[in-house]
């Protein structure tokens, strides 16, 4: 029963994340509709919780994204997978500090890796299989907007996590105050 | 130990992705995909309806005076358009009679498929919309998509079994062969990627193009018939050092709020 409830909770969570992503993409005006909610939440799990199991959420979310996108199947999933693994490596080895700047920078770098892998795979498919049209300069303008706003939101999440979840958490209070 | 667990996680995830991609291209995932789309399509529809309603409400309350001024202009335009419509019908009848006299072969009627817009592309880098008709209903890649009686809004770029994805004319990756309704019938290529506007390139510099001229599809592109309205010219760039002139045009319809569209089944 316990495992059933846990599985149900995970399914509802994934459903909610994807519905939120649809809502943001369809409802908000440009440039806010470029915010990548799925990436935001997955990256948040890696930044703040540091649990490799959390990365399993990527699988159903990436699959759901593939169903409603114009890119060939698999491009988004592979790009997301590679970018999140790269993010984890960067956070463990390069951006080890957890300041505001690092959160913003690592979020921006991760999204840049995501889009770089995405466009590389598109060119690969164009070379070997069929032709998928892409206009590089204008594509990166939209991507730049996506990186900027998603990173800003990630930084906002960091503030919420740091001040309200961590700082006001009683277990972090010093013994001197007891 | 923690690192080993991480590496195992990545390995298993990578393997599952590869297997899923392989199964997809074999077609084994189609029932699962259809089932999941059936669950999420109503959510997309509600979200799209809410978005359109929100934009309409915002446009109204943002500037009430402009709204009423525009309404009065539309009323005045409507009367002029009624007269033009009557003249067009007369000309159409005359054209038909003349064609019959000259034994012209009739152009085959293009089949039109109505569809509802259920949302936008969830992957935000492209300006595309999703419609609720797919290859089962007859849609194919490169078919034009219109609103109203003939305003082009885009082309189908992906046709799944139950949905299709339409790239809008203001997307940077779409190019359409077009002609200007001016004295010279200037030819050019319309492409997007300029925010809300669309640009028409490769217009010969010696041809006169003015603000207000209408742009239609030229019919020189396969699957896109001639005569679909694209937009009106709002600015012209004609620099002496450029080999061609460019025109910036505003689409004839609001591309952020299409709700019911028609697919021309041209192929």
TrEMBL record, chain A:
Top-level lineage group: Bacteria
**Key word Transmembrane present:** yes
Keyword annotations for this protein, in alphabetical order, are: Membrane, Transmembrane, Transmembrane helix
Q: Note whether Transmembrane helix occurs among the keywords.
A: yes
Membrane-traversing stretches: 7-24, 30-48, 55-81, 101-127, 139-164
Name of the protein in its database record? Rod shape-determining protein MreD
UniProtKB/TrEMBL annotation, chain B:
Membrane-crossing segments per the record: 9-28
| Protein name per UniProt | Cell shape-determining protein MreC
Question: Which positions fall inside the Rod shape-determining protein MreC beta-barrel core domain?
Answer: 117-264
Q: Is Coiled coil given among the entry's keywords? A: yes
Name the domain of life: Bacteria
Q: Which GO terms describe its biological process?
A: regulation of cell shape
Q: Which gene encodes it?
A: mreC
Could you give one GO CC term from the UniProt record?
A: plasma membrane
Q: Which PANTHER family match?
A: CELL SHAPE-DETERMINING PROTEIN MREC (PTHR34138)
Q: Per UniProt, which keywords does this protein have? A: Cell shape, Coiled coil, Membrane, Transmembrane, Transmembrane helix
What InterPro entries has UniProt attached to this entry? Cell/Rod_1, Cell/Rod_MreC_2, MreC, MreC_beta-barrel_core
Please name the source species: Candidatus Magasanikbacteria bacterium CG10_big_fil_rev_8_21_14_0_10_36_32
Q: Keyword Amino-acid biosynthesis on this protein?
A: no
- Which family is it part of? Belongs to the MreC family.
Q: What does the UniProt function comment say about this protein? A: Involved in formation and maintenance of cell shape.
Coiled-coil residue windows? 74-108
Q: Which Pfam families match?
A: MreC
